[in-house]
Amino acid sequence: MRLSALLIFSLLPIVCFAQDFSSRWVGHFSYANVKDIESYGDDLIVAAENAVYRYNLSTKEIQTFTTIQGLSGEFISTIHYYQEKDLIFVGYQNGLINIIKTENGEVKIRKVVDIFEKKTISPDRKTINHFLEEGNKLYISTDYGISVFDLDKLEFGDTYYIGDGGSQIKVAQTAILNSRIYAVTEQSGIKRAEISDNNLIDYRNWTLVTLGSFKAIERIKNELYVASTFNQVSQLFPDGNLNPKQNFSQDIRRFKVTDNKLAITTKNAVYVYSEGFINEEQVDYVQNYSLELEAGIAFGNKVFLGTVEHGILAVPYGSATATQILPNGPIRNRPFGLDASSGQLWVVFGETTIDFNPYPLSEYGISQLTDSTWFNISYKELKQALNGKDATDIMKVTINPANPDQAYMSSFQKGLLKIENKEPIILYDETNSPLTRINLGGGDAGIRLYGSDFDREGNFWVVQSKAEKGLIKLTPSGEFKKYDLSRYIDPVGELALTKLAISKEGFIFFGAYYNGLLGFDPRENRLNKIGENPGNGNLPSANVRALAIDAQNRIWIGTLRGLRILHSPASFFEAGTRESQPIIIMENGVAQELLYQQSITAIKVDGSNNKWIATASSGVFYVSANGQETLLRFTKDNSPLPTNNVQDIAIDPDTGMVYFATTQGLVAYKGTATAPRGSLARLRAFPNPVRPEYQGVVTIDGLTSQANVKITDISGNLVFETTSQGGSVQWDTRAFGRYKVRSGVYLIMVTTEDDKETKVAKVMIVR
């Protein structure tokens, strides 16, 4: 027999420890969508979409594991708990495996990339479907076959391809009974082999038990039960005969034995069976919760429902009431729009395609973070508060700078939502405001609002797509005024008006999908626009996706294919050419255009006038005030970003915390650039003292704009001097960048720009 016919394949051990980012990062993941559940003793281990948590039923303590501790951030398919070594195995849809170990309060996460990186396996065949522990081995069911993992050595052994002729075939689940391992497949029925056979890599040592299409198998004591792909559950006998037990009208989503109880999870119910297929319990209704389920287990006379929206619901036998088990977090893991003010962050979850098609409509709620606690308003609660009105597709949130307890949220279908003191107050639409619904070809396109901002007079500006009067102002007194754009664009032909920003002069700038950048001067009632190509505005693309105006009143324009800057907003309305400029940087001695051809999704200016720039495929760039220097670059590979697709950014002006909304969760970086203060009353330096092991910079915070900062040793010798751009500056603990200063106490003397206030602080350096 030819060796290649066996498809012999052993995965080499590729195991490394993931980096822990908890010193500078915070994770804000949603744990509401449960994918799998494990139990041991008094603990539950729960896999959410791309995070894991452990919950103790007695103490109620919750421990979470996310990308901050080193999880991959990819979508989880299954988990397993190995009690002997207190290890949590996390399997992913892309073939990656994480192993979580908690010891003496320290979390260590191993990254096992053997399957993920194996080139002989197609990427669409790497999903980890199931873990089965037997002795010191873990049998891993995948979309290509079965791989064996040694639990003592924590490394892979053989891989079994059990399809016809030794081909790769999806194995959904395995079970072991009487020294035989059984594997269920969708295409080749149920196969089994002797577990003691040392040559299971030979597909001919796997015998066909029964034909059919199957997706699950579990053992209750000495009985085997299987689920077919058409949702019939049968008992499997050693001779291959099937004894049908029950047909389920809904798709079976999980099939799991815990404490000798088989929990069969369908979309809306969990059914619990004991030996002999005796129905012990059925949960298909829980008070105050709508049930959509992904997982379920039963033990201790309770059924634990893994829901799509509510985390874990623990339901005692015979009861219809539940205890919710859910870590603190936002509603879901696909944040789209963010806005932050001092001490708070609002998150919205509306979605459209890249071409701004809102269908199917997204019926999601909204979330607010305040002092590390999440407050969520579900879609159902929004609808109730708005007397039955649907606030779908909420894509943008803008906090009122004059009243941080008030926020406006743009729906790309239903109008404008106003929130005050965490309460939905009103949804402005065609029934109670001048906002008008748009009909396209006889179809209802709704009220498509998106980009918004407040001007210095407290007016709220927002753009509406597909409407002739697509620029809208809402005054502080509640009056609407609409401005006609049809002289400059075809509103119906334009797919969408996008982000909006307001200059210091009060000029309103907003992007468009086809029409580049538009600007409106409300005082002179002037409107103008620029597009792509030299002589017409020089944008790299007419599809403008991001806008920001910095402390020097420059307009930063992010497009589908790159970045541009306009240096003078006032010149936008003057006759002649209004050309935007690229930022040219030197990279390895070669002139390059900053963010060339990158799809830019958001630009935010921090307290030092530096720019955070989000992209759709390359993570986040943090660049200097003029863009000439890249200060930081965060990607999935070097940070806790769960994906390189970042949709929005928000910055807390007081703390410098930078929030990143990715398509796979929300994370935050502990930035140091804060907004300028009104006085020096909150001047501080941190860390303080600076200990020998610390290699970072000292941040001097609580500064006014353009404050003079001098640092001297105790004898008065000057070692550092600078002028603040925002509310903070950094010192690298060197004397004018040359050599590190010696141990001692250093004086920080700060004077405001007008010389009216001076304050002194101290920092201790320990070498």
Please describe what this structure looks like.
The protein is mainly beta and 767 residues long. It has three domains: 3-162 and 249-325, Neuraminidase; 337-670, YVTN repeat-like/Quinoprotein amine dehydrogenase (Methylamine Dehydrogenase, Chain H, 7 Propeller); 684-765, Outer membrane usher protein (Immunoglobulin-like), CATH 2.60.40. The protein has three helices and 67 strands. Strands 1-10-9-8-7 form a five-stranded antiparallel beta sheet. A four-stranded antiparallel beta sheet has the order 2-60-59-58, with no helix packed on it. The longest helix is centred in the middle third of the chain and has 7 residues, at 379-385.
Structural class: mainly beta
Give the oligomer, counting copies of the same chain as homo and different chains as hetero: single chain
* Overall mean confidence score, pLDDT: 94
- What percent of residues adopt helix (DSSP H or I)? under 10%
User: Please, how many domains?
Assistant: 3
Q: Approximately what portion of the residues adopt beta-strand conformation?
A: over 45%
